């Protein structure tokens, strides 16, 4: 049983608590034929949100909405009737159906108001509908976003449903044993006449009184209910003694006695310094350090962007290229409740979409600029958060550039966009710019979208970046004939490109990483989860994740690769970034098609793991038990095939 239910049962021995019983997951599994399937489906979505750092949050929230509703077993009414009898209740009683989530009312996060409650429930049919609604609120949109905001996506999906006799309340409300803002040992009581749900939900303005050493002060007529307030104060002190900490108590008074509906620790103590309103921002890349000081301490991702991309933005300006736009923001719900401040923030972005990096659990979320305000209202809380918003420049082309040994530049481009190139899902083309910014004679069609001015900028900035930062590759977006320099990625060594590489690509074979390998085939077909993890902020050139950190599917692939003794060859359609986790456990990779400069390709070359892109070899790998690849710098490759092993 959950902590809220256990707390109420324990308190019932010391203070008045209405008769109740609970339906935990074990009981619900016996009452619903599809209980496990529903829970597993919702838990899978939560795991996906964590693995992708919320990059596909809207789609994942839609998946939660689509989880099936409970299917009650045939004898559910009989089983429920037995529970009523055991608790001294009747289905004819007016009932309250409340949540008691496994993560609710903890020491750090109360989840107050996140889960559903249903009041004035009468009859078995209404009870079953209310129980279903309350249980499903454990994975509602509101609950998912709160889990994400609190870093609790990994917490088990547990929801006990409490069924409790309704109190015919004359007064109801919340009583705090200490001031919830500054922690002073003064009892603060807020109440409304009638049911307390209007107060808890914010639908009704409460009356309040404060009980301190100076006496009782506050609003009439609540202040005049002396007998009720004395009884309530005694109940609150008893609950505080039982729980051993400052508490807030939901209560109801029926004209004769005060009933405790819930008791929990006050989670907001010692956070008064975070309660003031905030809504400020500055340019993350170009602002001077003294302007950034007001936002410190910065989250890790903001520090990363600032330290890495500020020098790049200055280099871009020096070469007449526009850098990406990014704002460092500090704010909370109170600060951005002012619509004019929210509008002013959104007006700073000129593209149709933005990228929101809100927390370690919510990264690289691309959303229309017009929806930014709504998303911030969802994720902002009372405590100020520091986060980053960037223009998302989709553009007409994504490009990655590296200098060549001959003084030229290798360019890889795709209309699928820069993100798709990096993460391995793009169809790419390469061309070379020589030391006079001319395109190789064999590749004029590929380079046609980039005029002489753009080629000159690509050439100068790419070589200047290597002089400034060491071995790096630059990441660009071209939009409307203009280049935007977005990012750079440090690499251990520059790719030594041969002028004839384009010829071999046209033949259908392309060396991604030179070397020789022979082994059994490990086929990894494309699927949505693999693509999602690859697109998310989980994998980068500077960080090779463990298989276990990328979820059970990648962990199972790694286990099979380990069982193969490190000699297996991965056969997969694209160089998905998430497959970097397999590099230590395999001897080679074969792709149907691949980018030369994507994250996985760079990691393969740095790890000296041979890899080749070839439709023919990929097809043979799908049919074969073993494969031999010989990938030379001139893009030669050879294969032998047999039967296959699939993932």
Automatic annotation (TrEMBL):
Transmembrane segments: none annotated. One of its GO terms (molecular function) is kinase activity. Residues 568-629 form the PEP-utilising enzyme mobile domain. SUPFAM superfamilies: Glutathione synthetase ATP-binding domain-like, Phosphohistidine domain. Coiled coil: none annotated. Residues 92-212, 227-276 form the Pyruvate phosphate dikinase AMP/ATP-binding domain. Gene3D superfamilies: ATP-grasp fold, A domain, ATP-grasp fold, B domain, Phosphohistidine domain. It comes from the Bacteria. This is Phosphoenolpyruvate synthase.
């Amino acid at each position: 049983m959950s902590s809220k239910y256990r707390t109420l049962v324990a308190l019932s021995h010391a203070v008045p608590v209405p008769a109740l019983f609970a339906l935990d997951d074990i009981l619900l599994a016996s009452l619903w034929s599809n209980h496990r399937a529903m829970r597993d489906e919702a838990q899978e979505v939560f795991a996906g949100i964590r693995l992708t750092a919320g990059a596909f949050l809207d789609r994942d929230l839609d998946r939660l909405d689509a989880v099936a509703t409970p299917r009650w077993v045939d004898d559910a009414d009989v089983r429920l009737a037995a529970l009523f009898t055991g608790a001294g209740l009747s289905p004819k009683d007016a009932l309250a159906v409340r949540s008691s989530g496994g993560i609710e009312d903890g020491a750090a996060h109360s989840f107050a108001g996140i889960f559903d409650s249903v009041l004035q429930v009468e009859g078995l049919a209404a009870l079953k509908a209310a129980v279903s609604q309350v249980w499903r609120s454990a994975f509602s949109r509101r609950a998912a976003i709160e889990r994400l905001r609190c870093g609790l996506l990994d917490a088990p999906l547990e929801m006990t449903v409490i069924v409790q006799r309704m109190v015919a309340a004359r007064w109801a409300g919340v009583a705090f044993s200490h001031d919830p803002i500054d922690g002073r040992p003064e009892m603060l009581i807020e109440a409304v006449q009638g049911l307390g749900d209007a107060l808890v939900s914010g639908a009704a303005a409460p009356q309040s009184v404060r009980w301190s050493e100076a006496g009782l002060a506050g609003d009439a007529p609540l202040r005049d209910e002396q007998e009720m307030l004395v009884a309530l104060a005694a109940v609150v002190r008893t609950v505080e003694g039982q729980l051993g900490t400052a508490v807030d108590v939901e209560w109801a008074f029926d004209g004769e006695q005060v009933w405790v509906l819930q008791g929990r620790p006050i989670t907001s103590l010692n956070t008064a310094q975070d309660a003031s309103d905030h809504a400020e921002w500055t340019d993350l890349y170009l602002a001077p350090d003294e302007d950034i000081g007001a936002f410190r301490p910065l989250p890790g991702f903001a520090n990363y962007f600032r330290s890495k991309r500020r020098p790049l933005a200055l280099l871009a300006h020096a070469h007449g290229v526009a850098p990406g736009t990014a704002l460092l923001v500090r704010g909370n719900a109170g600060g951005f409740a002012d619509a004019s401040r929210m509008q002013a923030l959104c007006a700073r972005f000129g593209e149709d979409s933005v990228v929101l990096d809100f927390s370690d659990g919510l990264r690289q979320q691309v959303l229309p600029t017009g929806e930014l305000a709504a998303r911030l209202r969802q994720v902002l809380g009372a405590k100020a958060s520091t986060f980053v918003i960037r223009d998302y420049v989709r553009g007409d082309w994504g490009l990655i550039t590296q200098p060549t040994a001959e003084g030229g530049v290798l360019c890889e481009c795709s209309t699928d966009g820069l993100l798709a190139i990096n993460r391995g899902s793009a169809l790419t083309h390469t061309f070379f710019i020589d030391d006079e910014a001319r395109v190789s004679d064999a590749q004029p069609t590929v380079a046609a979208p980039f005029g002489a001015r753009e080629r000159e900028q690509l050439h100068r900035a790419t070589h200047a970046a290597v002089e400034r930062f060491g071995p790096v590759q630059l990441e660009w977006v071209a939009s409307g004939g203009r280049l935007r320099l977005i990012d750079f990625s440090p690499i251990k060594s520059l790719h030594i490109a041969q002028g004839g590489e384009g010829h071999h690509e046209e033949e259908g074979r392309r060396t991604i990483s030179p070397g020789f390998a022979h082994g059994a085939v490990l086929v990894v077909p494309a699927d949505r989860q693999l693509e999602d993890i690859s697109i998310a902020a989980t994998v980068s050139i500077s960080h090779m994740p463990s298989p276990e950190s990328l979820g059970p599917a990648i962990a199972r692939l790694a286990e099979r690769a380990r069982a193969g003794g490190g000699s297996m060859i991965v056969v997969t359609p694209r160089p998905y970034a998430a497959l970097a986790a397999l590099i230590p456990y395999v001897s080679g990779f074969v792709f149907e098609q691949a980018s030369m400069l994507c994250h996985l390709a760079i990691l393969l070359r740095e790890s000296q793991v041979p890899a080749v892109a070839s439709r023919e070899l990929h097809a043979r790998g799908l049919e074969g038990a073993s494969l031999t690849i010989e990938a030379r710098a001139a893009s030669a490759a050879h294969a032998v095939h047999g039967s296959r092993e699939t993932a």
